Amino acid sequence: MRSLAVITAGLSSPSSTRQLGEKIAASVEGAVTSRGESVEIHFIEARDYAEELAAGLVNMAAETPLLDDAKKTLSAADGLIVVTPIFQGSYSGLFKMFFDSLDTESINDMPTVIAATAGSARHSMVLDFALRPLMTFLHAMVMPTGVFQATEDFGTPEGARIEQRIQRAAGELANFMVSNPDHVEGLAGDFTNIESRKRKSGVGIDTDNFVPMSQLLQ
């Protein structure tokens, strides 16, 4: 079974940001299922971790059990959807706080769909000018198709085109979440077995770089 994490940063409940995340996740689920796999979807709403996020950012020793669980779930996922509302021309502060709390190796090579909601289509470039660079900095594998939904698009032809973009983005993500047996090896050989960079949730002790005390004493 594949695992899909959906991070949303809406402030209201319910929120249009969460609803867009659910739409994309449902499309991904259908696309993965059509490829012969099942998928388990984990929704991570940043607003549920607001207190622990604030505590963790000002005090590295603060206990954040709920946030730690979310980090583990995220790093173990096979695919990721991130959805933020647009405030002041960029992603929301709460959305950024969540990603500021992550280990920089937490979503290495993770197939990711970026999405955003706003009141006006004037903010649509935020996908490529803000969200895509942030995910790329964290070494995520960002899908070519992003999804932007403005309030003014509902019930319009543009709203119908957004549905098409959701389907296309879901198909792209599903292709990376599920192994494709129809790949062509090519002249350079088979690259499907190349080990990707290991992910680290940032929770607990990193034993990979652990140096025994006996060596330190030497």
Automatic annotation (TrEMBL):
<dbReference type="Pfam" id="PF03358">
    <property type="entry name" value="FMN_red"/>
</dbReference>
<dbReference type="InterPro" id="IPR051814">
    <property type="entry name" value="NAD(P)H-dep_FMN_reductase"/>
</dbReference>
<keyword id="KW-0560">Oxidoreductase</keyword>
<dbReference type="InterPro" id="IPR023932">
    <property type="entry name" value="CE1759_FMN_reduct"/>
</dbReference>
<protein>
    <submittedName>
        <fullName>Putative FMN reductase</fullName>
    </submittedName>
</protein>
<keyword id="KW-0285">Flavoprotein</keyword>
<dbReference type="GO" id="GO:0016491">
    <property type="term" value="F:oxidoreductase activity"/>
</dbReference>
<feature type="domain" description="NADPH-dependent FMN reductase-like">
    <location>
        <begin position="4"/>
        <end position="152"/>
    </location>
</feature>
<dbReference type="InterPro" id="IPR029039">
    <property type="entry name" value="Flavoprotein-like_sf"/>
</dbReference>
<dbReference type="InterPro" id="IPR005025">
    <property type="entry name" value="FMN_Rdtase-like_dom"/>
</dbReference>
<keyword id="KW-0288">FMN</keyword>
